[in-house]
Design a protein that fits this description.
With 126 residues, the chain is mainly α. It is built from 7 helices and 2 strands; from the N terminus they run αααααβααβ. The chain starts with a helix and ends in a 7-residue tail after the last strand.
Amino acid sequence: MRVLYLVLGFIFLGIGAVGAVLPLLPSAVFLLAATYFFAKSSKRLHDWFLSTDLYKKNLESYVKNRAMTVKTKLTIICSITLTMAIGFIMMSRVPIGRIILAIVWVCHILYFVFGIKTIQNGGKTI
């Protein structure tokens, strides 16, 4: 089972790393999954991952404070909005799919605006 967790950790790390570079693919979700799988597979790999710049830049503030910077929030909101817009356009013949996608998008926006605390420049959360 440890080998499966190890493989999944590296897969999600790879996807998360690509997501950190491409604005279309959100990295935080995949990096959180990588953290989980590394923790399950190997303490050494988990500790290594927590010390990487990729983790520190994209997840550390969220994991420690359950908060994100405005820039991180906007990046996630914009990438998800763009992805959902593509799906919305492609569902031109599926009105119920468009309705469901619109509801998910609104919930997504509300969660990031009101559900996750915002870190100010000085490090304080609001």
